[in-house]
Write a structure and sequence with these properties.
Bound molecules: ligand BV8
CATH superfamily of the largest domain: TPP-binding domain
Shape: globular
Number of helices: 9
Number of domains: 2
Distance between the termini: 6 Å
Largest sheet: 6 strands, parallel
Strand content: 15-25%
Radius of gyration: 18 Å
CATH architecture of the largest domain: 3-Layer(aba) Sandwich
Structural class: alpha/beta
């Protein structure tokens, strides 16, 4: 195990047992708001107040949730190999709070806000930062309105070079809690297969790209992942 190059990709399903709603399940986030209404640059231009308040509500929710057994199992597993890369589609900070400090957030992070002028991101998690009114940067001579540091649909995911580099060298690629609906994240399993990696999926139900995995374990991540990772250690 120690020499294996392991890459893990997580989606909203790994945070479900922490109380954060997923995007496409029954009461999924998207059902409350149409995707076009909140997670696109066009929506931010058309109705910035709606988009701002949607993400401010999700930022406030970070204060009420904590990592679950699946997050903890990944943090322990990461110590078992010298080459471990954790990539998440999630924008919450539960992996970091479980102990995976250097998590790659390919779809951005709720904890940071970004200056629309300079592009600089800063952590803004003080009580005053959860307001419904817009916040402004401290990096420009004339303070500019901040946006959430989130990758919206139609925007380029973050750190794609580092992501591809890790997956192309992986021996083991594990996906946890993702519907395989959103690209390019959902296509990474194909990169892993082409690299000759063993590909494993842990998900509540069979997702769209299930047939691309060598192994599929259906069930709750909090219940299945600790034993699966223990067996791999
Ligand atoms: C890009 C941040 C190109 C926001 C997110 C037209 C125009 C432009 C692009 C496109 C287009 N048509 C298609 C595309 C591509 C598009 C896309 O894939 N669209 C989909 C809807 C078809 N992708 C993009 O736009 C991406 N960018 O392509 O850029 C480009 C090229 C050059 C230059 C510029 C640009 C950007 C996509 C990122 C969007 N942002 N998130 C926010 O968080 O508010 S995506 C959003 O959905 C989440 O981040 C999440 O990661 C992602 C996928 O969802 P999942 O994580 O998989 O969650 P989901 O609810 O779907 O599934 C949860 C699963 O868990 C379920 O299967 C469930 O069964 C399981 N589960 C539930 N409970 C548990 C569990 N499993 C285990 N245990 C449990 N307890």
């Amino acid at each position: 195990m120690a020499q294996q190059r392991v890459v893990v990709l997580t989606g909203a399903g790994i945070s479900a047992e922490s109380g954060l709603r997923t995007f496409r399940d029954g009461d999924g986030l998207w059902e409350e708001h149409r995707i076009e209404d909140v997670a696109t640059p066009q929506a931010w231009i058309a109705d910035p107040v709606l988009v701002w308040r949607f993400y401010q509500a999700r930022r406030r929710q970070l204060l009420e949730v904590k990592p679950n057994a699946a997050h903890q199992a990944l943090a322990t597993f990461a110590t078992k190999t010298d080459h471990f890369t954790l990539i998440t589609q999630n924008v919450d900070d539960l992996h970091e709070r479980a102990g995976n400090e250097s998590t790659i957030h390919m779809h951005g992070r709720l904890k940071t806000l970004r200056c629309e002028q300079s592009g600089r991101s800063e952590v803004r998690m003080e009580e005053a930062d959860f307001c419904d009114e817009f916040l402004y940067c401290q990096c420009c001579a004339v303070p500019q309105r901040l946006r959430h540091d989130i990758v919206w649909f139609g925007e380029m995911p973050m750190q794609m070079e580092a992501i591809h580099s890790a997956v192309e060298k992986s021996d083991l690629f594990i996906v946890v809690g993702s519907s395989g609906h959103v690209y390019p994240a959902a296509g990474l399993v194909n990169v892993a297969n082409a690299a000759g990696a063993t590909t494993i999926l842990v998900n509540l139900e069979a997702p769209m790209n299930a047939e691309n995995f060598d192994e599929v374990h259906l069930g709750k991540a909090g219940e299945l992942l600790p034993n699966i990772l223990e067996a791999l250690s």
